[in-house]
Design a protein that fits this description.
The structure is a single chain. By secondary structure, this protein is α/β, with parallel strands linked by helices. It has two domains: 41-376, Alkaline Phosphatase, subunit A; 380-468, Arylsulfatase, C-terminal domain, CATH 3.30.1120.10. It has 13 helices and 15 strands. Strands 1, 2, 4, 5, 6, 7, 8, 9 and 10 form a nine-stranded mixed β-sheet that branches. Strand 12 and strand 13 form a beta hairpin.
Length: 469
């Protein structure tokens, strides 16, 4: 009943706000034609890969994986070197994208529905296993301001994956007009297209149809792929191509199956870019490429440490590329600290919308317009009060300037040695040299900031699990 009341209030507020805005725009711009106002704000195409490590792209240094289309996006656009996911796993990062809020604030801190292993030292909190409809999503906000919104691919923000077009909690109830929800192989309906285990072709086709149908509208096209998430399945010819390369190892740093899957994904992006060019939409469409967390598999994420599930850099430092011909200067990079929370504010800013709710993100539009711009942000935070399937224990972290502190909750609850790790990411991006005993004052200062942040944001803390004793 309370959620229904929230939704009624939210819809009333947005409807009233839209009425006022439309009336103001009519008074100011009423004498201008629709054609003259067509390009007052850009279309948004947002492509999110699944479990793609930053080291797996050519534009970030890979000589094994082949990603010519994504590399060209970077060459013609802006590449971020300090972009992060708000979580080590998919659902929390996706929730942060939709709402602009830290997963800890939402209490949505693990993949849905998650798993709680028995007999562990700490008790996993009763976290929220869905994105509440009381939260304003970026799709709802853009839709209220005249954007047509499309979701094509993985959702993973409802209590289960039995997606239906009109079901509460699925994309259609969270602001998306045109919806295709997909699953990884074996987890749901198969693709309608042949040789399309991960629905890459189907997702791409639907996205292209959406773009073509809405070429005369403002549109938000959200393309969250299932690839390159497990199970690792791809065309044998492609796998053989990468198996012959030096260092190739299934499950390893240079994974031939993931490489084959990534080539398919890269080709799909080329089709979307070709459609934008064909429709003469390039200059009025901003294209963003991103990943939700690090590579699944080998913990050797060189030049970074770790992979999916880690708060080491390999688990959370993400590829982020923004391309917008005529606005973004080609071939530039930014080393500003950014995080998935920032997309909400960025898209709001792109659409000339004043934010109506408090978020934990910052708009990246100043950097998009000038790669040398500064966000004046020094700190980012993470909170993962869960046991990851790879065997990792519960953890939290703070990045403060060039330094990062990681806290292991099982040890910190009893003030045990090894509870904290400190790394200088500027001089040690691979996190090989723990400085916790070398810079005690900085360590304590950062630890206090982390604990204060958790308190202020309402993060769910872990307590000892008496049943494990």
């Amino acid at each position: 009943m309370q959620i229904e009341l929230f939704q009624i209030q939210k819809r009333f507020y947005k409807t009233f706000r839209k009425f006022i805005l439309v009336a103001m725009l009519f008074l100011v711009f009423g004498c201008q034609s629709n054609k003259e106002n067509k390009f007052d704000k850009p279309n948004i195409v947002f492509i999110v890969a699944d479990d793609l490590g930053i080291h797996q792209l050519g534009c970030y240094g890979s000589e094994y994986y082949e990603t010519p289309t994504i590399d060209q996006l970077a060459t013609g656009g802006l590449r971020f070197t300090n972009a992060y996911a708000a979580a080590t796993v998919c659902s929390p990062t996706r929730a942060s994208i939709m709402t602009g809020k830290y997963p800890a604030r939402l209490h949505l801190t693990d993949f849905i529905p998650g798993k709680i292993p028995p007999n562990k030292n700490l008790k996993v909190p009763e976290w929220t296993k869905f994105l509440s409809e009381s939260e304003l999503t970026i799709a709802e906000l853009l839709k209220s301001e005249g954007y047509v919104t499309g979701h094509f691919g993985k959702w993973h923000l409802n209590k289960d994956k039995k997606y239906e077009l009109e079901r509460s909690g699925d994309p259609g109830s969270q602001g998306f007009d045109d919806v295709l929800t997909t699953h990884k192989p074996g987890a749901g309906p198969e693709s309608k297209l042949a040789n399309d285990k991960h629905h890459v072709k189907e997702i791409t086709l639907r996205a292209i149809e959406f773009i073509e149908r809405n070429k005369d509208n403002h549109f938000f096209c959200y393309i969250p792929h299932n690839s390159i998430h497990a199970p690792e399945v791809e065309d044998k010819v492609l796998i053989d191509k990468y198996s012959k390369k030096e260092g190739a190892k299934i499950g390893g740093h240079y994974n031939p199956i993931q490489a084959a899957m990534l080539e398919t994904l890269d080709n799909s992006i080329a089709q979307i870019l070709a459609k934008l060019k064909e429709l003469d939409l390039e200059k009025n469409t901003i294209v963003i490429f991103y990943s939700d967390n690090g590579q699944l598999g080998d913990k050797d994420g060189q030049p970074y440490r770790g992979s999916k599930g880690d708060l080491y850099e390999g688990g959370i430092r993400m590829p982020l590329i923004i391309n917008w011909p005529g606005t973004v200067e080609p071939g530039n990079t930014s080393d500003e600290l950014v995080i998935s929370n920032d997309f909400f504010s960025t898209f709001s800013d792109l659409a000339n919308i004043n934010e109506v709710n408090k978020t934990d993100g910052l708009s990246l539009l100043p950097i998009i317009k000038n790669s040398n711009a500064k966000l004046n942000r020094n700190e980012l935070y993470w909170h993962y009060p869960h046991y990851h399937g790879s065997g990792l224990g519960p953890q939290g972290a703070i990045r403060d300037g060039d330094y990062k502190l990681i806290e292991w909750f099982e040890k910190s609850i009893d003030n045990e040695k090894g509870a904290l790790e400190l790394y200088d990411l500027k001089n040690d991006p691979g996190e090989q040299h723990n400085l916790i005993d070398s810079i005690p004052e900085l360590s304590e200062q950062m630890y206090q900031k982390l604990k204060t942040w958790r308190k202020n944001i309402g993060a769910q803390e872990m307590v000892k699990n008496l049943k494990s004793n």
